[in-house]
Amino acid sequence: MWTNHERRAAQSRALTEKGEYILPVRFDDTAVEGLLPTVSYLDARRISPEVLASKVLEKLGRPIILSKANALPPPHSPALCGDVAFDYSSHDGRFEFGHGDLAFESRWTRVSNRSIYCYNDAPSIRGVAVAPVGADFKALGDVSTLDFTSRTRCPAVGQFVVLQNTKGFFALLRIESIGDMTRGDRSDELTLRYWVRPDGGSDFTNERG
Length: 209
What we know:
By secondary structure, the chain is of the alpha+beta class. It has two domains: 2-59, no CATH class; 70-196, no CATH class. It has three helices and twelve strands, in the order αββαββββββαββββ. The strands form three sheets. It has a five-stranded mixed β-sheet with strand order 3-5-6-7-9, with no helix packed on it. Strands 4-12-11-10-8 form a five-stranded antiparallel β-sheet, with no helix packed on it. A two-stranded parallel ribbon has the order 1-2. The N and C termini lie far apart (79 Å).
């Protein structure tokens, strides 16, 4: 009696819902009073328990897989300066450093083991620029005067990259080495050193390598 009461309540609510509310599942051919023969259903004899569990979770709005694997958070270094090395062929080439308003999510793709593409695609990044080849800390000056107007830049090993985030802060990156498995290297590892100006400044002249 109680089971029939629950079924009638569910069928009544299903009439008022915009989407499908009931997920009928049959485990055998037993006739069920009040269930029209035209009602479609899952046949538990033809699907695995795992598939049925997945369907139930979908119906509850809690699917097992919530996002694509490449949407996982990228590697992260919370320090405001340091040396990092990461595989740029993983996580869509993303690496994040800094924290809070001083966070920068960089993105990289392959060119060779002598240069690499850097993008401003991340939502936290306003622009990306490169310093002239051969420039050192003394020659950098005010990095805000560099050209940030392109989506991508192609720095070489030893060259400086400048990122500005959407909060207006600047980060300076120096490409230390680039691994490229297509050219015989053991891994696609990008090694760089970085500095973040927490005071909002844009002059890195006094930083040290």
